């Protein structure tokens, strides 16, 4: 089982990379449960590939580390993609990577589980998940997990972020493992015994009738 994290963070350290790492820390062990070994996790830092990505659009094909990154994405059982928000949308570097990937590996994301996430300075940009990221990966024929995770500056250390990370990571793990449902079937003995209406009515009649 292989999990790949694609991070478009630019700074070092990066809150974008941190969010990707925290999501992977939940998804990787859960994807192989109850096996003792977690999924193999690889992180692709797009800031290190900025120049090769730009060259791809002029040369027509990827080289070196970028080609290896494309191969890793295509071979992954699941993806976590994280971008900082620029101008109310994903970053240009993030979009360029997936544009180049779709040109060189058109079916790389077809049917692949993808967890979308983003970071930003304010909570007002949280709609980027559903207005930009989800349509992009749906177009690329990926299976986008229901829960996306957005982390604004004020979310770090605040109540709520951990729960979203846990829920999204487990949803990705379930898709990676091929589970159809994470909700256990109800036990038969959890239902109350149903008494037919006729029996209830008879119990109310006076004796002898």
From TrEMBL:
Name of the protein in its database record: FMN reductase
This protein's UniProt keywords: Flavoprotein, FMN, Oxidoreductase
InterPro entries in UniProt: CE1759_FMN_reduct, Flavoprotein-like_sf, FMN_Rdtase-like_dom, NAD(P)H-dep_FMN_reductase
Superkingdom of origin organism: Bacteria
Limits of the NADPH-dependent FMN reductase-like domain: 1-156
Entry's EC annotation: 1.5.1.38
Molecular function in Gene Ontology: FMN reductase (NADPH) activity
Membrane-spanning intervals of the chain: none
Gene3D superfamilies listed in its UniProt record: 3.40.50.360
Pfam families assigned to the protein according to its UniProt record, in alphabetical order: FMN_red (PF03358)
NCBIfam families: LLM_duo_CE1759
Leading EC class: oxidoreductase
Organism expressing this protein natively: Streptomyces griseoviridis
